[in-house]
Prior knowledge:
- The protein has a single domain, classed as FAD/NAD(P)-binding domain.
- By secondary structure, the chain is an alpha+beta fold.
- Strands 5, 6, 7, 14, 15, 16, 17, 18 and 19 form a nine-stranded mixed beta sheet that branches.
- The chain has helices at about 10-20, 50-65, 80-90, 120-125, 230-240, 280-300; strands at about 1-5, 25-30, 40-45, 70, 75, 95-100, 105-110, 115, 130, 130-135, 140, 145, 150-155, 170-180, 190-195, 200, 210-215, 220, 245-255, 265-270, 270-275.
- The chain is globular and about 60 Å long.
- This is FAD-binding oxidoreductase.
Amino acid sequence: MKVTIIGRGIAGSSLYFMFKEAGYNVRVIESGFRKFYPTLIHSVLLKGKDIELAIESKNFYEKHKIPLVYYPSYTIGHIDSKIIDEWISYGFNISEKFVDWLSSYTIIGEKTDALVGVRKLIDAVPYIEGKAEIRNGRVFVDEKEIDSDIIVLSSGAWNRYNIDFKLPVKSYYCWAWVTVNSNPLLDKVFVYDYEIGYYSRPLFGLGMKINIIGDGDTIVTDPFTKQFGNLSPVERAKKRLGDLKPVYRGEGYCEGTPDMRPIYGRISDNLYIIGGLNGYGAEVGPGLARLLFNLITKGEEEKEYLIDRFPPMSDFELGREPHEL
């Protein structure tokens, strides 16, 4: 059977390998509009079924020899006891203690958070470059039809612009700042500060005086319009981390759903979608891809993530990206 995947992001690339390994004839279409950064955050310290998707994603990375480099994580702020009990039930190595350099009690995670080399995954996928459109359940690339038995829409912020069907998603602009600091430890740890409202992650993970700061904020826009993210996450992070000098803004376009959780499922007979990854595709993307693969090949459903959970709607408001809860 011929499978056409529109979009070469983390979810689309994961699906490519799943279908290829199962013996399908797979083609991937990529417009070239998207930025793919070398590393992104992978964490299992999520909640509910997202934890299972994160574990499945980790297993996928390990199977395909995608680098996962672990660093300690520090979670600050009130975390519901039910979530902590979940983490303990999965056997995650967490502890709570006062950390002097953060001036706060934190939940410390060991081997729970990593930088994952997603660019290696994406670069391993062969693709056809072109502008894809879906019209009446048929795929056209630069106006030429591509014969397909199964079509998967997985182009992130571009999903709603590639199809003649109304989807419960919105595209938005997202950003984070590379900052120079006085504490080389910030390039070797993750900080998720729900008290002040920011996250910090390593840039290179080498203990240099440089890190990345973000807050998961969103600017609703189409993915074709240039936007400029502000310095608010850096200003907030300074309250905890000390002096931070922003030197570069990393930016891109993501896709959100009404509840800021992922979606997958069938749109029509042979047309499927995976998306709404809301900025945490590296954490749950391969796991969600496995759900879609199982839906297509086995008829199995995980209703919590199905696109059908949303009724027809004319508009909705986006929330904040879930970094990490």
